[in-house]
From TrEMBL:
Presence of the UniProt keyword DNA-binding in the record: no
Signal peptide positions on this chain: none
KW Electron transport (keyword) present: no
PANTHER family assigned: D-GULOSIDE 3-DEHYDROGENASE, NAD-DEPENDENT ALCOHOL DEHYDROGENASE
InterPro entries in the record: ADH-like_C, ADH-like_N, ER, Gfo/Idh/MocA-like_OxRdtase_N, GFO_IDH_MocA-like_dom, GroES-like_sf, NAD(P)-bd_dom_sf
Enoyl reductase (ER) domain mapped to chain residues: 11-361
Name listed for the protein in its UniProt record: Oxidoreductase
UniProt keywords, alphabetically: Metal-binding, Oxidoreductase, Zinc
Cofactor(s) this protein requires: Zn(2+)
Length: 725
């Protein structure tokens, strides 16, 4: 299918062939018939792309700070790999579209194939032939509303949310600053609320258009303040809706001048907001920044997970705003059809973007992209060839399931540089990034279905999707006889591990590898060598100053990420296992008591581990420490020897009373490259670089750590649990 994307490094807009996005339980698959270009938002994104790297850095100092911090910990080379990967990855454009439902997920209520719907969401409702959209961002279209009109729904909901926050009442007077697409719709919404509307813009044509919707207008350069006071007997307007975009502070200053005492200013557009105290203080003017298209925006609980807010407590959510806007079109109270100035087939999208980039000088307002309704997902090829070339038989044929930041920055570059692999197929969770990553790293094809990676042209599959997909993906790869590398965790439950265990036993030939890279780190290897002659059990202490992750991050979602013990704690159980050269025997976990934390999501906890060779380990994992402190610290004791690892940069080795040896690296090295090398060598030699029993023991211990935290007792780590009744 066709999708319009932009590359951040260059700002170039392209039409790419990408896989049809996969359908999940709470999503709806829609075939687009029309989408609307949001000139302001999309032009800002394109303009950012066209800036030089220095200009980008000046525009986003917050990201520069992150890059500097990453250089300090991970070094310049790896940081550049990460930055370059993100700059070169294509980003989908668009967030407001309409079309026909092709398929609805099993947990989607009230929507069926064949329904006409409007869709929203910058990550979902893109300019593409097909889109997969969460159920809370999809609404049915009334019969008397065309698809073109419905495509304006998300844009209209942004204006509607701004009007709601302004709390207009019958007979009030409002000023709308900026009469672009949002401003024109805002004028109509305020008029529908029985308000007198004054409108102004720097474009005389837009001012004239607003007059057609009943606005009293001020031409470019006119006396806005004078008219506002004249129409309100000198009191000032009741409220202002700022729908313009500007780096000047003049707009917010004017708002203070024209607004009455205790009036309201709602900022919908992106303007400078150095609010002058004098006017706003003396008049006690309320200032509100409107958050996109309503309650639910930027909340994964609502948008991604499909959980609605109770109507009695949140009357108008994103979805209810979208429905309201469509109903206003249906009733003839809002006219968007007359706002359409240009229509382009999706194949001519480049011409459409020339308009908003300023390469064409004709005026524009509503720009609609049209799609071919003839094609269906079943008509689309399962695979999209990217680099059709003969597969080298002396190289491992790798396919990737997932292509997020870690995969593109830490796995794909060293695999590519190794010269030992050829990239076969690529499937991503949403399909949006598949084509760009496939081109960047030379994959043979990209596809929309994981099943395509299980075919005969793949030797091994690398799974780097979100945690809830790992267990099934590994199981199915083994059933297909494929070697599999999976980013931690191996799985999220005992049941998933049991299914993997059975598939591994039935397969008998495929290797399983989990991305426990720290065991391969130079620091770890030095410590293991230091204790190589010690026969007695070892004692290990590991402290992780992990730092906080927002509660709405997907890792904190119990169903998707499984919490930080499942998602990250497994790394350190495996590290302890590598240091003592033995598998986990028992696990006992205790956590700090916090009102907002369940056992599964507790990220302040202590683990006590025993191992089959008599060694013990204590792991302290905390999210509540200071950022200034090193993140990871390891101590090992035994046989008259000791060792310390500080953040995988410094290693100090002790023997006897006085002998010490300090090894210091210039940058942090957590072992990704040697892990990849060891894995590839193991595939070629037919002997896994990490024993399967060790990987399964660590993975089972991780899941049982959460169970121990719930029960408050130590638990035995034994794969016999997989066959227990």
């Amino acid at each position: 299918m066709k999708q319009i994307t932009q590359t951040l490094r260059t700002g170039v807009v392209e039409i790419n062939e990408v896989p049809v996005p996969a359908l999940t339980d709470k999503f709806v698959l829609v075939q687009n018939s029309a989408s609307v270009i949001s000139a302001g938002t999309e032009k800002t994104k394109i303009d950012m792309g066209k800036k030089s790297l220095l200009q980008k850095a000046k525009a986003r100092p917050d990201l520069v700070k992150q890059v500097v911090g990453k250089i300090k910990t991970e070094g310049l080379k790896k940081t550049l790999q990460t930055v370059n990967s993100r700059l070169d990855s294509p980003s989908p454009l668009g967030y407001s579209c309409a079309g026909t439902v092709v398929a609805a997920g099993g947990m989607v209520e009230g929507i069926q194939p064949g329904d006409r719907v409007a869709c929203g969401g910058a990550d979902y409702a893109n300019h593409a032939d097909f889109v997969a959209v969460p159920k809370n961002l999809v609404v049915k279209v009334p019969d008397n509303v065309s698809d073109e009109e419905a495509a304006f729904t998300t844009v209209g909901s942004i204006a509607l949310q701004g009007v709601r926050l302004a709390e207009p009442q019958l007979g009030e007077t409002f000023l709308v600053v900026g009469l672009g697409l949002l401003g024109q719709i805002a004028v109509q919404l305020l008029r529908a609320n029985g308000c007198t509307v004054i409108g102004t813009d720097l474009d005389a044509a837009l001012v004239k258009r607003a007059e057609g919707f009943g606005a009293i207008t001020v031409p470019p350069g006119g006396d806005v303040a004078g008219l506002c006071h004249a129409k309100t007997a000198g009191h000032g307007v009741d409220g202002v809706l700022v729908c313009a975009g500007s780096s000047s502070n003049a707009i917010i200053e004017m708002c203070g001048e024209v607004t009455r005492e205790k009036g309201r200013v709602v900022v919908v557009g992106a303007v400078r907001m150095d609010i002058p105290r004098e006017d706003f203080f003396k008049k006690e003017i309320s200032v509100v920044i409107s958050r996109s298209y309503g309650p639910g925006r930027y909340d994964p609980f609502y948008e991604e997970n499909g959980n609605d807010y109770p109507l009695g407590y949140v009357r108008f959510t994103e979805q209810r705003n979208m429905s309201t806007f469509l109903e206003l079109i249906s009733q003839g109270k809002v006219d968007v059809k007359s706002l359409i100035t240009h229509r382009y087939p999706v194949d001519d999208a480049a011409v459409a973007y020339q308009l908003i980039e300023g390469n064409k000088t004709e005026p524009y307002l509503g720009i609609v992209l049209q799609y071919n309704p003839a094609s269906r997902p079943a008509d689309m090829p399962a695979r999209i060839a990217v680099t059709p070339a003969a597969v080298a038989t002396d190289k491992v044929r790798l396919s990737f399931y997932g292509a997020g930041n870690y995969a593109t920055a830490s796995l794909l570059p060293p695999l590519q540089a190794s010269g030992q692999v050829t990239f076969s197929g690529l499937v991503t969770a949403s399909g949006r990034s598949a084509q760009g990553v496939a081109k960047q790293f030379g994959f043979g094809f990209c596809a929309g279905s994981y099943a395509e990676l299980l075919q005969g042209d793949t030797d091994a599959i690398v799974v780097t999707t979100r945690h809830d997909t790992h267990g099934v993906a590994v199981r199915d790869a083994l059933k297909a006889g494929k070697h599999v590398y999976v980013e931690k965790p191996l799985a999220m439950s005992v049941q998933e591990l049991a299914e993997i265990h059975r598939a591994y036993g039935d397969c008998g030939q495929a290797q399983v590898m989990v991305g426990f890279n720290r065991r391969f780190a130079p620091a770890t290897q030095q410590v293991v060598e230091h204790f190589s002659g010690v026969k007695s059990p070892l004692v290990v202490n590991i402290r992780i100053n992990a730092g906080a992750i927002p509660a709405d991050h997907w890792i904190q979602d119990p169903q998707v990420g499984g919490g930080r013990m499942i998602g990250e704690g497994c790394h350190f159980i495996d590290l302890a296992s590598a240091l003592v050269s033995s598998n986990v025997k028992t696990v006992y976990a205790v956590g700090s008591a916090k009102a907002e934390k369940s056992a599964l999501l507790n990220d302040n906890l202590c683990l006590s581990l025993t191992f089959e060779n008599g060694s013990v380990a204590n792991i302290t994992y905390t999210a509540d420490g200071a950022k200034a402190m090193a993140k990871e610290y390891v101590e090992v004791f035994g046989g008259g020897r000791s060792a310390q690892i500080n953040d995988f940069k410094d290693v100090t080795l002790y023997s006897g009373d006085a002998e010490t040896r300090r090894l210091k690296a210039t940058v942090q090295d957590k072992g990704q490259k040697p892990m990849i090398s060891a894995w590839l060598e193991g595939l070629k030699a037919g002997k896994a670089c990490v024993d399967y029993a060790c990987l399964m023991s660590t993975s089972l211990a991780t899941v049982m750590a959460v169970e121990s935290l719930s029960l408050g007792i130590p638990l035995t780590v034994d794969t016999a649990v997989f066959t227990a009744e």
